[in-house]
Each structure stands twice: as structure tokens, then as C-alpha cells.
Amino acid sequence: MQPIQLFDLASRQAEWLTVRQQVVASNIANANTPKFHAKDVTPFDAVLDNADITMARTNPAHLSGNDFSDSGDIDVKDAALDQEIGIQESGNTVGLAEELSKSGDIKRQYDLNTSLVSSFNRMMLMTVRK
Question: For residues 55 and 84, what is the distance between their CA atoms, to the nearest angstrom?
Fold first, then answer.
């Protein structure tokens, strides 16, 4: 039996969301620290490019799958400069509005991830019972 890759994909995204939330929380905590530069993580698409998941194309109308490798590295890098606030007099580059928006986006993605896994789990249980 083939392993169910949805759970692996959901697990990788949950790990990525955890790292991103830690980085965003650090940015918010250091919003008043002089010369602190805001950080962000690589997009999840880049993490998927390094994953060990092969998507199957079962219908010609489906998008073609990518081959992924198994590193799953999540790089933390300096965030792009927020054009609205720029660099403050203290040298800080954290925009609180942007960081709070990222935090809300992380929660939304985590909720979606959790509900998809829960729905898939219920579907699997229904097929086993019959």
C-alpha cells in the first residue's frame, strides 16, 4: 500500500508555519530594538521544491507534478524592506502592521491545514468502516 502523502505534506507545512510564527513573533518583540532588521522565512513553495513528495498526474487536465527532494530546509533571511515605514531613525525595519498581518495569515493557513487533515482523516475512516 502506498503511503498517504497528504499527511506528510501537512506535517511539513505545519513545521514551516511554526518556524514562520517564531520569526514573526521575534520581529514583533524587537519592534523597538535599535538597528534590528525584520526577518522572514523562505516561502513554502521553496520548501516544497526540497520535499520528498511526487505528485501524480492522473488526468491530462491536472497540472504536472514536480519532483521534490528531501531536505525541507527552511531558511530565515532578512525580510524585504517595508516601503511604508522604510528604515526608522533607530535603524529598525520592523513594520508592526505587516507583522500582525503575517501572524493572521499564519493562523489562517494553520486552520486550513488542520481542517484539511481532519476531513481527510474522516474520509479515510469512512472507507475503512464499509
Answer: 39
pLDDT of 17 over the 50 cut: yes
- Residues pairing with 77 in the sheet: 40
Cell numbers linked to 83: 516601503
* 47 touches 18 (CB < 8 A): no
Q: Could you give the count of Cα atoms lying within 13 Å of 56 in the half-sphere of its Cβ?
A: 5
Q: Of 36, 37, 40, give the one whose Cα is nearest residue 17.
A: 40
* Buried-state track 75-109, b at ≥16 Cβ within 10 A, e below 16: eeeebeebeeeeeeeeebbbbeebbeebbeebeeb
The dihedral of CA 84, 76, 35, 94: what is its sign? positive
Using alpha carbons only, give the angle 86, 90, 96 rounded to the nearest 5 degrees.
55
Give 56-109 pLDDT, tens digit per residue.
656 666 544 433 333 346 777 777 666 566 677 677 888 888 889 999 999 999
pLDDT at 52 > cutoff 70: no
